[in-house]
Every structure is written in C-alpha cells, then in structure tokens.
Amino acid sequence: MTNLQNDNFLRACLRQPVDHVPIWLMRQAGRYLPEYRATRTRAGDFLTLCTTPELACEVTLQPIDRFPLDAAILFSDILTIPYAMGLGLQFQEGEGPVFERPLRSAADIDALGQPDPETELRFVMDAVRLIRRELRGRVPLIGFAGSPWTLACYMIEGRGSRDFIHIKGLLYSDPALLHQLLRHLALSVTRYLNAQIAAGAQTVMIFDTWGGSLSTPAYAEFSLAYMTEIIAGLKREAEDRTVPVILFTKGGGNWLEAMAASGADVLGLDWTTELDHARRRLGDGIALQGNMDPIALYGSASGVSVEAERVLASHGTGTGHIFNLGHGLTPHTPIENVTALVDSVHRWPHRKA
Ligand code: CP3
Questions:
Q1: Which residues form the Uroporphyrinogen decarboxylase (URO-D) domain (predicted)?
Q2: Which of the four pLDDT bands, split at 50, 70 and 90, describes residue 2?
Q3: What percent of the chain has pLDDT over 70?
Q4: Rounded Cα–Cα distance for residues 115 and 189 (Å)
C-alpha cells in the first residue's frame, strides 16, 4: 500500500468516509499563477513545458505548494496523442491549438500510427514517474487523456471550433470512417492511460470537452461508447489500491444515467447540472465531481465562499463528492479567491457549527 499522507480524494472517489470534502481544480496549474508564467517564459513555449519532464513536474507541483489541495494533476495536454501521431501541433498565442496536418481524407485516417506510450510518449511517463517521486506521498496524482470524440474534433477540424462542420460533416456523410478513427483513438487512449497507471498515476480522468456538442443518439454512439470501451480496458489496480476512473463530458447533464453506466467511478459535472438533482437521479452508487462555475472566482472572496457553500450543500453531507470547478480555471482568476475557495471547502460543514 502506498503511504499517502492525504488520501481523502481517493476515498471520496470510491465513496468511502473522508475527513473533509476533497478539492482539486481543473487547470490548477496555469497562467493565473505568476510562478507558472515564469516557468513558461523560461521554457519558451507551452509544448516544451509538456515535453520536458522536469518542467512538467515543476508546474504540476506549483499549485500543490501554494494551496492545500487534495490531489495533483499531471501537467500535460490531451493533444499529446495526436502530437505523437505526427499531425504537427502548434499552440498559437490567443488562438489555442492548431494542427498543420488535420485529417481530411480516408487516406489520412488509414495512415495514422499507434504511438507507443513508452517511446513516442515517453516524456509523459517520465513526467508521471518524476512527479510521484517529488510529491513524496503528499497527495495522489491524477493522470488523464482526452476522449476519442474530443481528440477527433481537434484532429479533423485542425483547431478549436464552434460548429464542428468538418467532423460532424463526416459523422453524417461517412459514419463508418469516423468509427474507424474513433476505434483507433480508443485503443491509443487505453494504452496511454494504462501506461500512466503503470508509471504511477493513482486516478485517471477522461476529458470529453466536446461530447456535449452532440445530439443524444450521436453522443451515445460516437462518444460514450468509446469511453465505455476504454474504461473496460483499463487496469484499475496498482500498488494494492483501486485506481478510480473519472469521466467528464462537458454539457453532459442530460445523459447522467448513460454516463453512470460507462463503468466510471466518478462523474464530473459542469455548473449547469445541480449536484442534488444528479444525486436524486443516480442514487449513491457513483461519486460526483464538481461543479462551481469557474467565473464565480471573479467575484469577491466572501462571494466565493457563499457560492462554494451553496455547491457543497447541494451535494449534502454524504460521502462521494469531490469539489471542483465545472470547467478549468481561467487565466485572470484572482489568486486570493482560490485560497478562499480551498479554505471554504475544507471548513465545510464545520463552519456553521
Ligand atoms: O488541469 C490541469 O491543471 C492539467 C493540465 C491540463 C492542460 N490541458 C494544460 C493546458 C489539462 C488537463 C488539459 C486538458 C485539455 N487540453 C483539454 C480538456 C480540458 C478542457 O479544458 O476542456 C482540452 C480541450 C485541451 C486542448 C487545449 N490545450 C486548449 C483548447 C488550449 C488553449 C486554451 C488556453 O487557455 O489557451 C490548451 C493549452 C493549455 N493546456 C494551457 C494549459 C495550462 C494554456 C497554455 C499556456 O498558454 O500556457
């Protein structure tokens, strides 16, 4: 058994009793932290940060050193897989990710290789091993990957998109070809997450940022089916502990029961679904993660506490709640409000006693 000083996060994922509601924040390492901006300037660009294990380790630990968070998340990006497949990834200032060679034909999809996690993606596994060493058991480490649908959105569109014309065009004109790509990506993601677990990730999270852009039947067929396949293929025991799986579909609030049937231990929720509503629909057989609006952090520190307590009360005192935001922290978030948030969550429900 790994010697963890604080395993409240892992306990909550498995619906076991906790000392306090655990909290971590999506994008907890990022531009709102001056120490992150300093490391990124030293690195030169974001991709260098992701591909240099010492730098990835340094920025992973920055929020852990600053706030008493209950979990660390590997600093990386979901786009490491298409990067390793040779699509030519660039991060352009103010523009987000752009691929030089997006997938536009059956030949492009046929030509995709299957990156080996310990060679082409070795930098990620080395980062996981280094972070585990440097964490020295303070809190557990979360590994992650993008869902096949969300990866395919970037690989086919070539960049972020509002309407997903290219990938949805393919979905409605040649669904078999899109299935071929998603099947290929499901295998890549399964191997990638299993390698992260073998390297030391103590939980894994699947980010389905764009699943919510689909119709209900298309979500089941083109996103959830592949995430379910991935979860079934994960090795969920390591170091004599269960490795919980978190599934997060942004905008997935209509599909709670279907998502819960994926085999995930935890569902991540965005701020448009109330936690008490989700609990009523799902019962207590699954943990829930979320779901404060990240923009609530732009108000006053006292307003942040009020909103955090509303979210906490919505779930109630039963175990199986991991506090998080409904999506990532944004670059201009005031740091003192993050401090106030973590403090409010850790004091609850004792604050009113
Ligand atoms: O949560 C964490 O702290 C771990 C790090 C993490 C990053 N990206 C770092 C990052 C994680 C888990 C991701 C996942 C990711 N990457 C997702 C899924 C989650 C989500 O946000 O929906 C997606 C869609 C991506 C793709 C991606 N990477 C985009 C769209 C962008 C640009 C957004 C922006 O803020 O400019 C990135 C870049 C990125 N990934 C940054 C960080 C900290 C900003 C890079 C920088 O300028 O320093």
A1: 22-31, 142-158
A2: low
A3: 98
A4: 10
- Kindly report, residue by residue over 6-30, the tens digit of the pLDDT: 999 999 999 999 999 999 999 999 9
**Active-site entry in 36, 83, 154, 219:** 154
Supply the residue whose CA is at minimum distance from atom 39 of ligand 1: 77
In a domain, 54, yes or no: yes
Asked whether the beta carbons of 71 and 203 are under 8 A apart, the reply is yes
240 part of a folded domain = yes
- Quick one: pLDDT at residue 199? 98
Is the pTM for the entire model greater than 0.90?
A: yes
Residue 252's domain spans which residues?
8-352
Confidence of residue 350 (pLDDT cuts 50, 70, 90): low
Q: Which residue has the tokens 């509503």?
A: 277
pLDDT, mean over the chain? 97
- What lies within 8 Å, CB to CB, of 230 at 6+ separation is 148, 186, 189, 190, 193, 206
Helix locations, the chain, DSSP H: 8-13, 34-43, 46-51, 53-66, 80-84, 106-110, 122-135, 148-157, 165-173, 175-199, 216-218, 225-232, 256-260, 275-282, 301-315, 335-347
Going from the Cα of 185 to the center of ligand 1, the distance in angstroms, rounded, reads 19
Q: Stretch 299-315: mean pLDDT, rounded? A: 97
- The torsion angles phi and psi of 84, rounded to 5 degrees, stand at -70, -20
Residues whose CB falls within 8 Å of the CB of residue 118, separated by 6 or more in sequence, listed in order: 125, 195
Please report whether residue 2 resides in a domain: no
Nearest partner of 59 among 83, 38, 81, judged by Cα? 38
Q: How far is the CA of 16 from the centre of ligand 1 (A)?
A: 30
Residues whose CB falls within 8 Å of the CB of residue 268, separated by 6 or more in sequence, listed in order:
205, 246, 247, 248, 249, 289, 290, 291, 324
Task: Give the number of domains in the chain.
Answer: 1
Q: Is the pLDDT of residue 241 over 80?
A: yes
Report how far ligand 1's centroid is from the alpha carbon of 333 (Å): 15
For 289, the 3-state DSSP assignment is strand
Instruction: Indicate which CATH number applies to the domain containing 21.
Output: 3.20.20.210
